What we know:
The chain is an alpha+beta fold.
Amino acid sequence: MDEVLALAFATSALLNAVLAVLAWRRRSATPAATALATAFASLALWSATGVPLNFPVSPPVHAALTYGSFVGILGSVVSLYLLSRVVADPHYRPPRGQVVHLAVVPLLVLAVAATDPWHHLVLTRVTPIPQAPWFEVRWGPLFWVHTLWCYALLTSAFARLLHAWWRGSGPVRRQVGLLLLAGLVCTAGNVVVISDPEVFSGRDLTPLSFTLTALIDAYAVLRVGLLRVVPIARAAVLENVRDAIVVVDAGGTVVDVNAAGRAYLRTRYPDLPVDPVGLPAARFLTARALGDLPGGYLSYELEHASGLHLDVQVTALRDRRGRDLGRVVVGRDVTEVAQLRAQLAEEAVRDPLTGLHNRRHFDTAAAQLLRCAAATGDPVGVLAVDIDHFKRVNDTHGHAVGDLVLVEVARVLAAAERRGDLVARTGGEEFVLLLPGADEEALAVRAEQVRAACAALDVPVAAGTRVRPTVSVGCAVLPHHGADLTGVLAAADRALYAAKAGGRDRVVVATAPPTAPVEEPRTTPAP
């Protein structure tokens, strides 16, 4: 029987040593591998110290082996605790205070064990059992302090692994479940031995329970792929997501905000606390984000701050019974998309050659501008501008030169534009300017300024050759020369034709439309 037990201890030590090597080789794949390798190595040492205890040894040797087992015990407990932290959060790094605690306490225990022959605070008595190679051991007070410390760490480790198992899914849940089972097996064996030392005739078979633990862990590593699939904590995922995430409970209180969310909130609310958890969500989320969610989902876009556009998605959170738990608000930076969309929209209403607004934009914007003017009763001046002899320029110098002339004239018209004005290229060489608030006198002054600026153009087209374009301008004022946009444009066109007929390079102001004669009612003579 003694040989069988010794073989079991040796088998446990060998299995754990092999697993320690396998785990250590995979330390670059996951941070859990280092903690797992250390745990296996410590279990191997603990099991190895139990091999000679199954053969007749002297009391000093028995005590020395018992003291030596503390290295394996403490190493396995600390490693399993760190393993549970890494499995729950792969980004976990123990803070300095915790490192000191996990290092100093085991060193103190080992120091007390090494000096136990002088104070007997760990082993109060080691008595040989007659006709057996075993000893009756009575533990001292420091042993129980050490045991309570170990079980406190193991309880914390089991709680974290259980939480990771509960929140996990798929292969991660299966792997964590195997770690829990392995830990329960060895813990159960140790509890039995400590609670009743005589149950195994004074023999400490705790390391033997690690044979089963090692077999379970071997199955987890070699068959289930414990180190191939790395569990990732939900918190680590949220903190590394670039989208802003804000979680609000059913009462409207913020319960979680990730790093991106805190950064976005500070761009608009610099006075907000660094961690807004616990604040009313209405303090910084819009009423739309906190409003009703009939379908459980809402998506919209807003300008969160100047130049920062967010695509906002609001999703209702409900439990399995359909009860409202709150909502999660996700904001994604779509500034580049919004800018591109605005650029494309602007290009759609711009003339690609001159950069002025095109006829499509002119019709829409002019209608809105005239509605505003009608509401205030202010006049709106209209300038119809046409480049003189433009066909001759194209025929003489080519279309490239004609395009250059168009660009230069458009530059002059754009420079003449004031706030609220509307300038557009409405045809080949035709342009229209709408000038809100300009009466007939002011309109004539503005028109002359445009004509003079165009007449001053000097466009080089070739060596020694230059083109000096001129324009004819027709002026009309709404409502004096027309009751609506169509009427005032027609009046400006008539004035433009008059300017061309009068010799070009001039300004003509439209005349008031003739008043239609009023027909007298006819009187039908009596029969």
